[in-house]
């Protein structure tokens, strides 16, 4: 299937980046979902077709807002300069406001991240402050923080929808 080849080609280098296993897993899941949804073929990779660029914007914003990855690291994921990723962040709000199809894609990607984060959340025991392992507590708090940021993004999306209806 062309879509899966495109996803594989776009993410094969990610394993060599300085990312956690979870960040790699979520990034690959985002590429897979976005490329399949938008029917990005292997021949479209590296082009400036609007749907490819907007798909990359949605993936980059989902990574940045949920995994708290640096612009430089996200740039390496896309094989782009960090300035391009900063531009993606600025373009995201405008496209989200005016493009229903983009909004649906972005929400879909947020759902992918939420599902991956929830997998971890339910697989780990609840926070026990008697536990001496501070790293485990920090990891769980970051996961909970990511979940709350996802909810905030969903509320922001709903607000944009309401705003566009009113206008």
Task: Tell me about this structure.
Helix 2 (21-38) runs antiparallel to helix 6, helix 3 (50-67) packs parallel to helix 6 (100-123) and helix 6 (100-123) packs antiparallel against helix 7. The chain has one domain (2-166). The longest helix has 33 residues, at 134-166. The model has no long low-confidence stretch (mean pLDDT 84). It has 7 helices and no strands. By secondary structure, it is an all-alpha fold. It starts with a helix and ends with a helix.
Describe the secondary structure blueprint for this structure:
Layout: H1 2-11, H2 21-38, H3 50-67, H4 71-78, H5 82-98, H6 100-123, H7 134-166
Task: Please supply descriptive tags for the structure shown above.
167 residues; mainly alpha; 7 helices; 77% helix; globular
Average the pLDDT over all residues and give the rounded result: 84
- Broad shape: globular
- Percent helix, as a range, is over 70%
Ends apart, CA distance between termini: 42 Å
H/E series, N to C? HHHHHHH
What characterizes the major β-sheet? none
| Overall number of domains | 1
**How many strand elements?**
0
The whole-angstrom Rg is 17 Å
Alpha plus pi helix count: 7
| Fraction of residues in β-strands | under 5%
Give me the secondary-structure category: mainly alpha
**Unreliable runs:** none
